[in-house]
Q: What sequence folds into this?
């Protein structure tokens, strides 16, 4: 594969729905030009593609040299221009840097520490059982991605926030429109104005939550965000809504992608499913392998604050770098036989949750949910086979399976 074509693949949403094509490009980049200049004008502004595990780690470890602003994720040149002209509406932990990042992260961090999450573990296991029971009730056939994998983590995170169950479908729709803006089946639209309207709908909803929780404080995560103070002041409505949005969206979409992609991997590798049946103690390592295998977050961007040499290339101040997590998670220098799905892989130094100051806040919860689900499913799953072709979402940011038709028998 021509190395320039390989680089352009990273800016093509359809490539992330075609595993073979994507990984052929990423393997070529790691092998031939691991820090590669990509210039896909006019659709996207230029960036450096960082594809090796060691180089991604080097950037992640230096959050003052490589910052999130002004280009935290890969979006079209039109969207970059729109943000530059109108300002950024969404200001989540993904979009900002220290000292603001540290202050806003501290508002919710305690909710995602292991001690706090142990308090909800019984509820997580109950929801996992309910999901597997639902599979059984569906009569041995379902679109697992749509009917099971989506709902389970959605219920977990929105219950943690304290949102009413009647609102869950609306949050799911908005999440799919937000992350599915490159997918014809999922998106509301592709223009900056249409994407803005999705955010406006989110903000309208969450501004009402903020007002309610300030008037009537409760003991849920939404109330913590609404009533938090930094330097004595409440968060602005925009900052509060931004925190709700990242928790409510990434807090379930990435986990549902891991669970759907993890089961699809087990179906495609029946020997690994049998290993889990024989040794349920492998479920924690199997979940780590699913997270590596799926890599729901495809990239984050960083901007250099100073000239820097990375992988033998001179990165100039102001230039952007794309941290390619699917590539880092298949790096032959780190993973033994990286294209083998191995439920017992140990060590497993995947970077699916990032690293350093911006490491995923919900990593512990995501692991808990996936472990609970497969601990419930595997002993009850007598057999399973594909009922049709799986389909992945078109994306350059967050995504995974959108359809996984299966036939199965559950006890």
A:
């Amino acid at each position: 594969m021509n190395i320039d074509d390989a680089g352009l693949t990273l800016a093509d949403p359809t490539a992330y729905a075609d595993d073979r094509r994507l990984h052929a490009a990423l393997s070529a980049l790691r092998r031939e030009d691991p820090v590669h200049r990509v210039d896909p004008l006019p659709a996207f502004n230029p960036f450096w593609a960082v594809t090796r595990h060691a180089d991604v780690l080097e950037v992640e470890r230096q959050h003052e040299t490589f910052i999130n602003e002004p280009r935290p994720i890969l979006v079209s040149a039109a969207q970059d221009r729109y943000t530059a002209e109108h300002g950024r509406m969404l200001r989540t932990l993904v979009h900002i840097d220290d000292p603001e990042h540290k202050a806003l992260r501290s508002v919710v961090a305690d909710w995602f520490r292991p001690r706090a999450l142990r308090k909800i573990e019984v509820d997580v296991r109950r929801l996992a059982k309910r999901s597997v029971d639902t599979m059984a009730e569906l009569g041995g056939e379902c679109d697992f991605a749509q009917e099971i994998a989506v709902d389970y983590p959605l219920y977990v995170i929105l219950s943690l926030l304290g949102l009413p169950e009647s609102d869950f479908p609306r949050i799911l729709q908005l999440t799919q429109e937000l992350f599915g803006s490159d997918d014809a089946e999922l998106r509301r639209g592709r223009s900056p104005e249409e994407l803005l309207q999705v955010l406006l709908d989110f903000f309208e909803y969450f501004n009402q939550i903020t007002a309610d929780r300030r008037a009537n404080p409760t003991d849920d995560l939404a109330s913590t965000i609404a009533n938090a103070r930094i330097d004595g002041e409440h968060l602005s409505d925009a900052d509060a809504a931004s925190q709700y949005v990242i928790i409510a969206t990434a807090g379930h979409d990435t986990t549902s992608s891991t669970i759907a992609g993890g089961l699809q991997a087990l179906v495609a590798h029946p020997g690994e499913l049998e290993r889990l049946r024989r040794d349920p103690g492998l479920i924690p390592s199997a979940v780590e392998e699913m997270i590596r295998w799926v890599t729901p977050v495809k990239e984050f961007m960083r901007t250099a604050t100073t000239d820097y040499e990375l992988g033998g290339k001179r990165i100039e101040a102001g230039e952007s770098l794309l941290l390619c997590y699917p590539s880092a998670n298949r790096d032959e220098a780190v993973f033994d036989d990286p294209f083998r799905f191995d439920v017992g892989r140990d060590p497993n130094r995947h970077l699916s949750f990032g690293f350093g100051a911006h490491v995923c806040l919900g990593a512990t919860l995501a692991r808990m949910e996936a472990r609970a689900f497969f601990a419930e499913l595997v002993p009850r799953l007598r057999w399973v086979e594909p009922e049709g072709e799986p389909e992945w979402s078109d994306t350059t940011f967050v995504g995974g399976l959108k359809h996984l038709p299966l036939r199965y028998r559950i006890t």
Notes: The chain is about 50% helix and 10% strand. The mean pLDDT is 95.
